[in-house]
Amino acid sequence: MEITLDSPLDMHLHLRDGDMLKLVAPLSGDFAGAVIMPNLVPPVTEPGGMLAYNQRIREAMGNTPFSCYMTLFFTKQNEQQLALAQSTPSFFAYKLYPAGITTNSEGGVARLAEAENTLKLMEEMGIPLLVHGESHGFVMDREAEFLGVYRQLAQQFPKLRICMEHITTAAALDLLDEFENLCATVTLQHLIITLDDVAGGALQPHLFCKPIAKRPGDRDALLQAALSGHPRLMFGSDSAPHPRCKKEACGCAAGVFTAPLALPKLAEIFARHGALCQLQSFVSGNARRIYGLTPLAKQVTLQNTPMAVPGSYRSYGQQVVPMYAGEHISWSIKS
Ligand code: DOR
Ligand code: ZN
Predict the structure, then answer these.
(1) Which residue lies with its CA nearest to atom 7 of ligand 1?
(2) The pTM of the whole model exceeds 0.70
(3) What CA–CA distances, in Å, run from 44 to 51, 72, 138, 189, 230?
(4) Other C-beta atoms within 10 Å of 113: how many?
(5) Cα of 1 from ligand 1 centre, angstroms
(6) Fewer CB in 10 Å around end: N or C, the chain?
(7) 64 lines ligand 1 (CB under 6 A)
(8) DSSP letter string over 226-260?
(9) Catalytic positions, please?
(10) What is the pLDDT of residues 199-216, one digit of tens each?
(11) 257-314 pLDDT tens trace
(12) φ, ψ for residue 23 (rounded to 5)?
């Protein structure tokens, strides 16, 4: 069996910088493009820094054609600043992090009221808002507690395109269905695992991410939504590499590294459920329609021939462990 995907897109990707960027960027090269997260140290807040980062990504990609949809780390902006960002090549959206909620988000938004003027301008100018939607509450309830904020934003700014990034709950899907101006990304791991896979037995640091994986009912609802071709649900891997020594450590960094196996694993899952025909919308079509994107043309054929996932990826003095390290996935990319 085979399927050929047209310009698959990863709508939420961490590529890091320096040697880690050089190691991981080519491992996303089967995608036609990706939305690039800005939570570097320091975060990417200015169009100039964003352009320079885009250039470093291009160099790390080598000759592989790949569209970078760059994001800026949300801080208060006036109209002139927004206009500058909007006119900068490769700029796609602002990414809003509640202050301190995840890796390198200390400079995020402490009180949403401070962001209102900027959000109003973004609504008028047609600039999308991507949100890491978690409260500072109990870890299993953080996304559920944030849904009220999404609701308020969706009502207050009805023309603002708001993306609920990496949703992990059935309740987030319910909210998605309530507001036309909401869309959402979901990761590979949140379609597959629950908290039991992370911490039900021996702790699995390579499956630890934020938001934390939730209950079986949440995972099942997300999977059903993806398989049934929910029109406002898009694939965003949130592939988030950390050096092996930062994962297999006391104080394990949050993030699951899935970029190199995401497309084969998605094909395996969609095929197993008889839903391969929905994969194109999930990994490209929905994103193109929602954001009006025209990605560069790239066809990727997947086949049900096994892929051996390496125990780790190493080069440039960096080592990173992928999900399914040392295991087989029953689908692979046809080279
Ligand atoms: O697990 C995560 N890792 N969640 C995030 O929101 C950030 C990401 C990272 O940058 O490592
Ligand atoms: Zn992320």
Answers:
(1) 103
(2) yes
(3) 10, 6, 29, 26, 32
(4) 8
(5) 34
(6) C
(7) no
(8) HHTT-TTEEE---B----HHHHSSTTPPP----GG
(9) 238
(10) 999 999 999 999 999 999
(11) 999 999 999 999 999 999 999 999 999 999 999 999 999 999 999 999 999 999 999 9
(12) -70, -50
